[in-house]
Design goal:
Strand order of the largest sheet: 1-7-6-2-5-3-4
Helix content: 25-40%
Order of helices and strands: HEEHHEHHEHEHEEH
Number of strands: 7
Largest sheet: 7 strands, mixed
Number of helices: 8
Structural class: alpha/beta
CATH class: Alpha Beta
CATH topology: Glycerol-3-phosphate (1)-acyltransferase
Strand content: 15-25%
CATH architecture: 3-Layer(aba) Sandwich
């Protein structure tokens, strides 16, 4: 069933987003990566995942909020189709760390799509990044961290709307980065955020 649904879902996502995908300073690769992006729409994860080349898409899992994607049978099914890694934001504990869950789920095969701002941001400027991507990098320093700038996504499905609005958008994927030796959490998070901001000008 999924073999049939995936191309349909990918086609619908591309139709509504009109997304143009650009690689700046990096190339498509099936190596393990963490694609980290700005977050303005509930459809960000789906559209970015759908825009990736097929071989990469098959090995990439978007990290998404469980409370949104299990709300109703349609969303729940879509999250299963694009193999989302759902995080229960109400049950985050020291012994139930989302970072440990991500590391366990990706093993030595899968890549991730994450949104370091946390929740959606409807403002023009990105929020400061939460620390998850830093701790993920500390525990898996081998993972390539790839910045992604999503442009115009917030207008595809404005807040409060149930159905998306067809629109042209752009996805810019930048150069991989890694946590540097001795780099502090704050310095790393600022640097990662700036890598996305720099992609606005391409």
């Amino acid at each position: 069933m999924k073999a049939v649904t995936i191309p349909v879902l990918v086609g619908i996502a591309k139709l509504f987003s009109g997304a143009t995908l650009r690689w700046v300073g990096s190339q498509p690769d099936t190596c393990q990566r963490v694609y980290f992006a700005n977050h303005t729409s509930h459809l960000d994860a789906l559209i970015l995942w759908a825009s990736l080349p097929r071989q990469i898409r098959a090995l990439t899992r978007p990290v998404a909020a469980k409370d949104y994607w299990v709300r109703g049978p349609i969303r729940r099914y879509i999250s299963e189709v694009f193999n989302a890694l759902l995080i229960d934001r109400d049950k985050i504990r020291v012994h139930n760390s989302p970072i440990d869950m991500m590391i366990k789920e990706i093993g030595d095969q899968y890549s991730l799509i994450v949104f370091p701002e946390g929740s959606r941001n409807t403002e023009s400027e990105m929020r400061d990044f939460k620390s998850g991507i830093y701790y993920l990098s500390k525990k898996r320093p081998d993972l390539e961290l790839v910045p992604v700038y999503l442009n115009n996504m917030n207008r595809i499905m404005p807040k409060g709307e149930f159905l998306p609005v067809p629109l042209m958008s752009c996805i810019t994927i930048g150069q991989p980065m890694w946590l540097e030796a001795g780099e502090s959490k704050n310095d790393f998070l600022k640097r990662a955020r700036n890598e996305i901001i720099k992609l606005r000008d391409y």
